[in-house]
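Task card 7
Instruction: Convert sequence to structure tokens.
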Amino acid sequence: MAQDRLILGAEDDSGKELIGNHPDTALVDRLVDVQGEPIGKRIVQQILCNPRISKIIFTGEPGGGKTTLMGQIAHKLIEDFSDRNLIKPLFYDDVLYETEREVRRKNPLKGDRDQWELVDWKYFNDKFVWHVKSPNNIPHGVRQVQFIEAPAVGHEIPKDRGRSAVRTLVRESVRRGANSDTILVHLNADPEAQNFASHIRSEIAATAPERVITMLRQNNIVLVGMPDNDKSGSKIKNETRRMAAAAFIEKIRTEMNDQASDWLDESVDSDSIMGSIALPERIKLKGAHMEHYLFDTDQLGLSKMVNGFNAFNKFNPEIIVYHYADLLSHV
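Output:
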């Protein structure tokens, strides 16, 4: 189905046709910033045209489409990249799971991240940064681009869901100025996309491994590079167990809204800030959350980054394509 290049003909709230619409890159093609300007192709072109770019950080709420966006950008890059380029993904859930096992070995009483203390979350964030910076044996002349995914949103002490790690990486990017090697893409989640993600994750959990791929296709989800067999179904089920459930998605959403509301209440420019965000009303607080999310101590923010994007994509359920092969995913 992905190879058929179907035209979706998606429209925005005003009925205006959105750009793009090939199903295997539809999310990239329809991606806009909080002012409503298309940015998907700009992001891809910045990566292609600037050989210094070696890290793309994707942040945003669980269930908002970060992994899908990563895979679709990877697909666009691979179409244009030569064989002298390498895409390397780093997923929040993987580092979190790895850290959880280490913490459990040291202290069995902390068998679950809900029992973690501030020192444990700091260890996790330090490990996340280490994974980003750890050297690789890359052949001479090969360019590696890291695709880094972390929620980095919400605020519940002591829980730090990658926020400190992302701040560290963004701080270094800001210091480099025009020589920055990092692009930050924050995806403001459409609640409809989150609801769909919660539904699909529940369906995966309730479906036998040999039926998982078929069930996904029935929900208009295409997994490129995944064979239709029991092994693929089992891997997807195992991966989904570590993903955010519906209750957690709602919890993060509430945290973000509360944090953004508190900040706007204290801001003298709250009206102009909200007025500059051309998003549906149900999304505006999320856009505001990211606009101030890095400002509290270091005076860092998307406006200070050379390559910072506060993005939104209206959910379109007609077809969703996951490019696992292009993203070199572990599932």
